[in-house]
Amino acid sequence: MTVLVTGGAGYIGSHVVRLLEERGDGVVVVDDLSNGVLARIGAHPLERIDLSAADAEDALTDVLLRHDVDSVIHFAAKKQVGESVEHPVWYYRQNVSGLANLLAAMQRTEVGALVFSSSAAVYGMPDVPMVHEDIECRPINPYGQTKLIGEWMIDNAIRATGLRAAKLRYFNVAGAGWDDLADTAVMNLIPIVLDRLAAGKAPIVFGDDYPTPDGTCIRDYVHVKDLAEAHIAALDYLAMGEPAETVFNVGTGQGASVNEVIVAIAESTGQAVVPEMGDRRAGDPPQLVADVSRIAAELSWKAEYGLDEIVRSAVRARG
Ligand code: WQD
């Protein structure tokens, strides 16, 4: 089987490329290297395409045919909430037009299986302790909206063309499955705290007056290697025929507060860490934890690693 991985040179995509390689699948990567790192994909062929470019549909059609692709895993997208608020049209062009070009090329070449990288950002600020896939999606920023629109586009393609697809809604992804595939972006809590500690600065907690047991926000941190395995499980699920469900939360079902994450980092680094209390950050829900019953039942997937392993792997990969 040959799998096209868009965004395969990225942090999460490259973990999936590594797993596909380990099980002997053919891999072709499409990446514009705007954030991707060439060294992450080893010897796999790279097709350097910006999916949102005017000629992307033709370029992708050519790639799908030339490499005899059977299925696609689509990561290539922009993923920074703040940036999406500042440049919304660009986000729509990158994430929505990019997916439209991919779907058009898949339809032209009759490539019939797609795993889509969605996000818990589609839920917005849900007022429930555990988020189930069927609650109403109310994204609160352009980034989350582009992901929800992507899901709708795929749902329509499923109805119109018989596409088989799985949309995976990631919760807070962190850690490293291999040391050379670390998250180098420093955009999320764990890399930010590690960076500040390395610079001799205290980490900042964005608010400790939330309605949670220790007052800090609770998230569901999922190890990037577990997340990568979920994509493989989704591919296998689609290979079995018409899927019963098409959208899945990918998390652990366990919440950890910002303070708990900082304690885990202190334990892992052996450093005493005294965080600074800061103001709340706009748009942060107090708690966002995945209900993972659907992915367990349908894909037989369950996260293997917990917070300590996530943090340890992130610390180790920083070197
Ligand atoms: C986690 C918690 C912060 C930094 C974001 C996107 C989401 C998804 C994943 C892409 C929050 C707190 C953070 C710091 C802190 N992205 N924090 N001090 O916001 O849950 O999710 O990344 O798909 O769409 O919104 O992740 O890592 O930014 O924050 O206290 O220096 O850590 O307030 O409670 P978030 P995060």
Summarize the structure.
The protein is α/β, with parallel strands linked by helices and 319 residues long.
Note poorly predicted spans.
Answer: none
CATH superfamily of the largest domain: NAD(P)-binding Rossmann-like Domain
What's the CATH C level of the largest domain?
Answer: Alpha Beta
- Outline the biggest β-sheet: 7 strands, parallel
Percent of residues in helices comes to 40-55%
Strand order of the largest sheet: 3-2-1-4-5-6-11
Any guess at the CATH architecture of the largest domain? Answer: 3-Layer(aba) Sandwich
How is the secondary structure organized here?
Blueprint: E1 2-6, H1 11-22, E2 26-30, E3 46-47, H2 56-66, E4 71-74, H3 81-86, H4 88-109, E5 113-119, H5 142-161, E6 164-170, E7 172-174, H6 189-198, E8 204-206, E9 218-219, E10 221-223, H7 224-239, E11 247-250, E12 256-257, H8 258-269, E13 276-278, E14 287-288, H9 293-299, H10 307-318
Parallel strand pairs: 1-2, 1-4, 2-3, 4-5, 5-6, 6-11, 7-10, 8-13, 9-14
Antiparallel strand pairs: 9-12
UDP-4-deoxy-4-formamido-beta-L-arabinopyranose is lined by residues 79, 81, 119, 121, 170, 172, 188-189, 192, 204-206, 217, 219, 258, 281, 284.
Characteristics:
319 residues; alpha/beta; Rossmann fold; UDP-galactose 4-epimerase, domain 1; 2 domains; seven-stranded parallel sheet; three-stranded mixed sheet; 16% strand; binds UDP-4-deoxy-4-formamido-beta-L-arabinopyranose
